[in-house]
Design brief:
The structure holds 2 protein chains of 2 kinds. Chain A is mostly helical. Chain A has helices at 3-9, 11-45, 50-62, 65-72, 82-107, 111-119, 124-154, 167-176, 179-211. In chain A, helix 1 (3-9) packs across helix 2 (11-45) and helix 3 (50-62) crosses helix 5. In chain B, 36% of the residues lie in helices and 26% in strands. Chain B contains 9 helices and 10 strands. In chain B, the strands form 2 sheets. Chain B has a 6-stranded mixed β-sheet, sandwiched between helices. Chain B has a 4-stranded antiparallel β-sheet with strand order 2-1-4-5, covered by helices on one side. Chain B is globular. Classes of the chains: A mainly alpha, B alpha/beta. The interface between A and B is medium-sized, with 21 and 27 residues.
Chain lengths: 214, 253
């Protein structure tokens, strides 16, 4: 049977795995954003930290994903549950685009606008929240978009350590040498990624038009 | 001209110098500005005039020497309080592109927690003062012409009624006709408001039109500081050079 028939026959599992997949990628991206965006803001304020922070995130990205999952297995609390491990690994991978885009977005704000804000007596906090972040929001959301799509793709590997998600079908299909099963995992995952890319892309464009109002 | 300036200087440069990475941008400036006076810093690019301006609102701090505003060193002022008492207008306005005209103008009063009704009244008052139609209040800067943006910039600087105004080539990006209009309107505004104004320009005609005194700067140093009437009569070579560069052109008055 073709992959659509396979999916229909196993639709409960398809839904279950899809939800697991969304949870893994979603929670990971959220965690990465909660850490990465503030870090990106920090390095615009403390330039000396720029190199170590960006360098660190870069190094994490160079570790092959399956290896990263493997390294974290022995860790005490993390390694105990496969989903925790997967979420942490995915979050670590999502850090770099978030930190980098936040940094670039804020630095990309027109310097004369920032200077005018400082000269008017805005405190650093007011400058950040009323001027810099709103004007950088398009680029920051682009970072979220990249991180999300990345996470959705990488989450397929989570199944290798038993964390669930659509990768389950992919790995099972590989073991069974059955293309339909592989596709039943790969196609929904790809569609998820495309959907996330589309929706976040629209948000990004809406926010980006604020900047071009200058 | 303006109402008689009171005695204590509003702004004082006491042998102030500013160096960036060893490069001197301003050397040993001694200059005093009285309350209510309009001093024009005239000079070419690199003359140090913008640096001088930025020392007043502490966007820069002097490397050596002191800069005093209302008798207190800028380095001793709380920078936020200092800047909220000084209006700052730059070329191209530096307006916030994501704020409407109204929100741009009302920004300082708003962060000073003025009540909403007072804010709205103040914005209307300022729009009228700078000659802008009230219906522009809800527009965004990108929807305005260059001249309109500059007027909003001036309105914004005046919003919290600061005693000191700094303008850095504020009319430089405008076409000649709009520029001339803005100069004349600004002169009328000055005479009504009596604020202490420091105006940076490289345009001699603008200086002659707007100044009580002209401080001529060259390569980071003050060359001469004279009341405007004496300035055109001065025989200093650099002054003569300026007068000649701007001669042979139609009178803007």
């Amino acid at each position: 049977m073709n992959f659509l028939q396979f999916m229909m026959a196993n639709r409960q599992q398809v839904v279950e795995l899809t939800l697991e997949h969304i949870t893994l990628a979603g929670v990971a991206t959220l965690l990465a954003a909660l850490v990465g965006i503030p870090l990106g803001i920090l390095i615009t304020r403390v330039p000396q930290l720029g190199k170590p922070v960006l360098g660190g995130a870069n190094i994490i990205q160079t570790i092959p994903s399956l290896a990263l999952f493997g390294f974290l297995l022995p860790a005490p609390w993390i390694g105990a549950r496969a989903s925790r491990l997967a979420i942490l690994a995915l979050a670590l991978y999502a850090l770099l685009p978030l930190i980098r885009n936040t940094y670039a977005g804020i630095r990309g704000v027109d310097p004369s606008v920032v200077e005018a804000g400082r000269a008017m007596g805005l405190t650093d906090r007011q400058l950040l929240f009323q001027v810099e972040l709103p004007l950088a929001s398009g680029v920051i959301v682009a970072g979220v978009r990249i991180a999300t799509v990345l996470s959705i793709g990488l989450a397929t590997i989570a199944a290798a350590i038993g964390a669930g998600g659509l990768g389950e079908f992919i790995f099972r299909g590989l073991a069974m040498v059955n293309n339909q099963v592989i596709l039943a995992g790969a196609i929904p995952a790809a569609l998820l990624a495309l959907l996330a890319d589309f929706l976040l892309g629209r948000l990004e464009r809406r926010l980006g038009s604020l900047r071009s109002k200058s | 001209m303006t109402t008689a300036p009171s005695d204590a200087p509003a702004i004082e440069f006491d042998h102030a110098s500013f160096r960036l990475n060893g490069r001197p941008l301003l050397e040993d400036l001694v200059l005093s500005v009285k309350q209510g006076e309009t001093v024009v810093l005239l000079g070419r690019s690199g003359s140090g005039k913008t640096t001088t301006l930025k020392l007043i609102n502490r966007l820069l701090s002097p490397t050596t020497g002191d800069v005093r505003v209302n008798g207190r060193r800028t380095t001793e002022w709380d920078p936020i309080r200092l800047r909220r008492g000084i209006g700052y207008v730059i070329q191209d306005g530096g307006l916030f592109p994501h704020f409407t005209v109204e929100r741009n103008i009302a920004l300082v009063p708003q962060i000073e927690n003025w009540p909403q009704t007072r804010l709205e009244a103040r914005v209307r008052e300022l729009l009228a003062l700078v000659g802008l139609n009230e219906e522009l209040a809800s527009r965004y800067p990108s929807q305005l012409s260059g001249g309109q943006r500059q007027r909003v910039g001036v309105a914004r600087a005046l919003a919290a009624d600061p005693p000191i105004l700094l303008l850095d080539e504020a009319f430089g990006a405008l076409d000649p006709i709009t520029r001339s209009e803005m100069q004349k309107e600004f002169r009328a505004l000055q005479q009504r408001m009596g604020k202490t104004v420091i105006f940076v320009t490289h345009d001699l005609r603008e200086a002659l039109l707007l100044a009580d005194r002209i401080a001529l700067m060259e390569e980071g140093r003050l060359v001469i500081d004279l009341p405007v009437a004496e300035f055109s009569r001065s025989q200093l070579p650099l002054v003569r050079a300026y007068m000649e560069a701007f001669s042979g052109l139609p009178d803007t008055n």
